[in-house]
Design goal:
The protein is α/β, with parallel strands linked by helices. Helices cover 34% and strands 18% of the residues. Strand 23 (602-607) and strand 24 (610-615) form a beta hairpin.
């Protein structure tokens, strides 16, 4: 497809943006002191140099109560100087238009935990996210917050931002006023939708008055709260029409609230699933509308713009994975884009107290930490294993001038990516292999498929360094009956190597692999999304029957594990979706059940203080994996420098394997 609309300029008020690609605001957690520090600057500079049209830096706190120290702030005059020289540099050196997002989280603020005061909200409705009870805002509070938005907007303008966005989405303060789920007020700010809109519209008018007629203003809204009793797309579109009258120049439409039970960002969300929300808003306004959520495929983004559903497209996580995505489109190199797989590793890291990272881009958030310089002394390097860690190491090391040969025992590269991409919704993971493999040849890596690296080859080739990335294999346990013919491995199931799976299935292992394998088995006789859409479009069945067909399968599937928490190793942002899918498919989860024996037609478990028999035609083993590192031990005895990475070092997630491969390549 020819990219025409993506590369067209667009005017927002008096501001010209060079193309239709937007980097939306995302909480990166690069600070704990409200600072716009060097790490932020390096991160955003890389995206600006990558050619994105509009880059919305933030979120940025407007005060100390409504946000948290993990984001930059613009609530003090001195903070303007943290942004001003950086923005001046962007204006001089790039065509990217810098914007910022002004933020107040309301009842979901983290700052109150450290400031010793309660969060503010329209009403005293406890936060499901923060597990805290906010204080209902007084009229004085309302006036103070409006003033804080206005003053921060002036600081943003004075710092050099060309576009200012006010957050009104995702269950934060303005959307809390909009929603009857969180707004129980009986004054002028509660009750009717007209009243519930009042606070947000007053903020917009206050900001417009403060910054004057020349600054472009936007707002980011939830196109549908996806909360029981919350605002629908129709109501949000009405709010956006009023926002236009209040001085807003662009509407950025995302999905629902963080608290919704409808997935918003995970790999289970089909690409472009929420474009219809932007279309619903665009039908009611005359200003530019941005579409969001899973639009990283440039052909899909181009189609969205051509359809007229939106005027710009947001590329958030895709620009984490590949900051040069816009430039590659501009230069006619879309095949070189590193494609986001919606794995959620980026935000799962926040849940563990870290900053945002990217499974596919080990430089993300560390752009100023590494310099990709040529090695002082090029070395001859053999890499054993063509999984993610091995390929990342090989490409990075060869790019630095080393002589690299990669040996893979199978006829194709990728390692465990193949089974990882089999479960429902995870097909995008398959692109990881292609994206990594595509980098090898230009870097000069010689690839030897169907060629396991042996001691004989090592002695003959005499490499300076051996990198062992031989991965892992399924762990085996010893229980009576483990060798029966109806006992199979989860990896073999996911790779499609098991042709006959019985109607009664027991999966042994409630880890991520075990739970995803159970979901995959259930999905084999459930209509795929395309079929379901066809049946729904033509009214082939009633809505009730369609719903039943979507979840109904012919198998009885049980997942057992000794632990009490199923899928414990799955990231927080993805686990709840997986657990929901298992529940919808009627898969029985049996935590606290220890496997004792496998018989011809059952598994015997110990649970609740006694023994129990669970019928099983097929038993799927998913009890973990163990490293394959024999080559490292063997070579180590001969004095050759050996570097062990990825699962060969210890079983780990793809984000850790790729990052380790990159970091080790930088050391040689």
């Amino acid at each position: 497809m020819e990219f025409i609309k993506l590369l067209e300029p667009i005017t927002i008020r008096r501001l010209t943006v060079p193309n239709r690609m937007v980097m939306p605001s995302m909480g990166m957690h690069f600070t704990d002191q409200y600072e716009f520090n060097r790490r932020y600057q390096d991160f955003y500079r890389a995206r600006a140099e990558g050619g994105v049209g509009l880059m919305i830096i933030g979120p940025v706190a407007i005060d100390r109560i409504g946000a948290g120290s993990w984001m930059p702030g613009l609530f003090e005059d001195r903070q303007v100087e943290e942004f001003r020289p950086f923005l001046a540099e962007l204006h001089r050196g790039t065509r990217t238009v810098p914007g910022t997002q002004l933020f107040h989280a309301g009842r979901n603020a983290t700052a109150p935990f450290f400031e010793g005061v309660p969060a503010l909200a329209p009403s005293a409705v406890p936060s499901r996210l923060m597990k805290q009870m906010p204080r209902a805002m007084t009229w004085e509070d309302i006036e103070t917050v409006k003033e804080s938005f206005a003053r921060s907007a002036v600081r943003a303008r004075d710092a050099g931002f060309d576009f200012i966005e006010i957050i009104a989405c995702t269950g934060y303060l303005i959307s809390q006023f909009l929603s009857p789920v969180t707004n129980f007020r009986t004054d002028d700010y509660g009750g009717s939708f007209e009243n519930r809109m009042r606070f947000g519209l007053e903020v917009f008018r206050k900001v417009r008055e403060a910054v004057g007629p020349d600054t472009a203003l936007g707002t980011r809204v939830a196109g549908n709260d996806f909360m029981d009793g919350g605002c629908t797309n129709r109501e949000i579109a009405l709010f956006c029409a009023e926002a236009e009258k209040a001085g807003i120049d662009a509407i950025n439409v995302t999905g629902g609230w963080h608290e919704t039970n409808v997935p918003q960002l995970t790999c289970h969300v089909p690409p472009g699933a929420y474009v219809y929300l932007a279309r619903g808003v665009k039908d009611r306004v005359g200003i530019p509308v941005f579409a969001s959520n899973r639009l990283g495929d440039p052909e899909l983004a181009e189609r969205v713009l051509r359809s007229g559903a939106a005027d710009m497209v947001c590329l958030g996580r895709p620009l984490l994975a590949d900051p040069d995505l816009p430039r590659k489109i501009l230069e006619g190199r879309p095949e070189e884009i590193v494609r986001c797989i919606a794995c959620q590793n980026c935000f799962d890291s926040i849940a563990t107290g870290g900053a945002v990272c990217c499974a596919l881009n080990p430089l993300m958030g560390r752009e100023g930490e590494f310099r990709l310089e040529k090695a002082a002394v090029p070395k001859k390097i053999y890499v054993a294993g063509g999984g993610p860690a091995g390929m990342e190491f090989a490409a990075a090391a060869a790019g630095r001038g080393h002589d690299v040969t990669l040996f893979e025992k199978e006829d194709r590269l990728g390692g465990q990516i193949e089974p990882a991409s089999s479960p429902p919704g995870k097909q995008a993971f398959g692109s990881v292999t292609a994206d990594l493999e595509r980098r090898l040849k230009p870097a000069g890596v010689r690839v030897r498929r169907k060629s396991p690296l042996t001691m004989a080859k090592i002695r003959r080739g005499k490499p300076d360094v051996l990198v062992v990335a031989t991965g892992a294999v399924p762990m085996e346990i010893r229980v009576p009956g483990i060798d029966r013919p109806h006992v199979v491995g989860a990896w073999d199931v996911l790779r499609g190597r098991i042709a006959d799976i019985g109607r009664r299935v027991v999966v042994v292992g409630g880890n991520a692999v075990g739970c995803e394998t159970a979901e995959w088995i259930a999905s084999q006789d459930i209509p795929d999304p395309e079929t379901f859409a066809f049946l729904a479009y033509h009214g082939a069945e009633t809505q009730e029957e369609l719903q039943a067909i979507l979840y109904r399968h012919r198998r009885q599937i049980t997942v057992i594990d000794m632990v009490e928490k199923m899928a414990a190793g799955t990231g927080r942002a993805s686990r709840w979706v997986l657990m929901k899918n298992l529940r919808l498919c009627g898969i029985e989860l049996r935590p606290g059940a220890k496997l004792l024996e496998i018989t011809d037609g059952a598994v015997i478990v110990e649970a609740n203080g006694g023994k129990e028999s669970i019928p099983a035609d097929t038993v799927v083993m998913a009890v973990g994996s163990r490293s394959v590192d024999g080559l490292a031990r063997e070579v180590g005895r001969e004095g050759l420098r050996v570097v062990t990475i990825g699962d060969a070092k210890s079983p780990r997630k793809i984000v850790d394997a790729i990052r380790e491969g990159f970091e080790e390549a930088m050391k040689i």
